[in-house]
Amino acid sequence: MAASERTALGPLVGAIDQGTSSTRFLVFNAKTAELLSHHQVEIKQEFPREGWVEQDPKEILNSVYECVEKTCEKMKQLNINIGNIRAIGVTNQRETTVVWDKTTGEPLYNAIVWLDLRTQSTVERLLKRIPGKNKTFSKFKTGLPLSTYFSAVKLRWLLDNVEEIRKAVEDRRAMFGTIDSWLIWSLTGGKNGGIHCTDVTNASRTMLFNIHSLEWDPELCKFFDIPMEILPNVRSSSEVYGLMKICPSRKSGALTGVPISGCLGDQSAALVGQMCFRDGQAKNTLSQYWFKILILRVLKRYGTGCFLLCNTGQKSVFSEHGLITTIAYKMGRDKPAFYALEGSVAIAGAVVRWLRDNLGIAKTSQEVEKLAADVGTSYGCYFVPAFSGLYAPYWEPSARGIICGLTQFTNKSHIAFAALEAVCFQTREILDAMNKDCGIPLSQLQVDGGMTNNKILMQLQSDILCIPVVKPSMPETTALGAAMAAGAAEGVGVWSLNPGDLTAVTCERFEPQINPEESEYRYARWKKAVMKSMGWETSDSPNVKHCNSNAVIRVVGWRIEFRED
């Protein structure tokens, strides 16, 4: 691109993409959707106890400032005028919970990440108050089951266990929010007038939000004993929330005055970025709904879960097969909310990180792909990575990860293959549930995210589903969705969401290469392994004693029991 072309690019839109493993800032051309520049910073995860997952909210915020600064520097080097950035969108890891002091701007505890399991005892205590211990008691208000996954139980745990937070609530100093709220409040001024808000997609993941009235629900807040005054104001996914302010501690002000005007939870942002919306879609039959499998990115060597969303238009559809109902987006203050059915899997790409960091069988995600490619089979080995229990369609927190079907022939390459295959089997489970709810089988699957760079995985996915898998050439659909929402906001208006104005995306296609009988056989074996993974843990389980060197290992079915002489 010539220098004159760079300076005449027209309006640009930035996107903050804050994920579980990293933060990025990306800048897109609002007319062509071309990615012009970006910067990424990896984020630490802390594991203070088994099942606990935390992150430092200040580290997350500083990573945003660093990404913005570095991206702007890169743009200047490319002779691209940062003054053309007209708006900024935010997309974020959902459910992760932060409480901070509005008078000091300081977090009162680490962020509790969506994967965290510490709240299982909280869930069980709450269940005792529900007739029949019905986990879906709030399904028709929130679309969600009672689970450790969602924000309300994390917030309840913080109020029960962190004295500093209890005191701040009593003193009316406390603010609660998911990562989007923490970032928008901080970036628009923080303790000096920051805007305390969230959007409908993030609010719908708290278990405190009525997805029909689009308001915080007083009855649910009373059930969880959450003071409503600490909750953020709920806004649409596309409107001006506030203006970027200079960060006093960093003297970072490259984009001061630019409006933050888009906000979407990561899966909703990817839905928008893949342009999965049309006027009048709610009037269409289920066969005309767009299905998306949104595999969260493995940034460099990191990853998280996988999620399947079906846009059901302006009608909320409730699953009979373990899926949840959520808000897909609301693209303007006066625009209607669109809904989606969603299947969530806790561990997908993160299994690659586990193979690297915990087992040490590979140094990179690319090496895991090579190991799997070397053997082309798991040789009867099945891996259920239920590190955080099982999400959809089981919602079984007592499950734990297992590797079964091992023989003396099994090696690290077979385990690597089984790990990738596990991602595909989990996708198959939630796709089967989606097909049952909708009554019409899917003819092809559109995929998204960094993990789709793994060609072995994409081919396995097609083989296990027995349908084509289609991968768009534009990999940054999550950030793109946030940018589209920001650029389309009233008062910004630099990005058209009219279907005729949206840029067509080229795709790579993977076709099934095994017969359906083999696929069904492998899937049935996987389901057997899943059943074996359940019932391992309860909140009152005693602490497991480490086996000494004289421990005897006894194999029972596919489980391994340890007992000491």
TrEMBL record:
Pathway: Polyol metabolism; glycerol degradation via glycerol kinase pathway; sn-glycerol 3-phosphate from glycerol: step 1/1. One of its GO terms (cellular component) is mitochondrial outer membrane. One of its GO terms (molecular function) is glycerol kinase activity. The keyword Cell inner membrane does not apply. One of its GO terms (biological process) is triglyceride metabolic process. It comes from the Eukaryota. It is an enzyme of class 2 (transferase). Belongs to the FGGY kinase family. This is glycerol kinase. The lineage of its organism: Eukaryota, Metazoa, Chordata, Craniata, Vertebrata. The gene is GK.
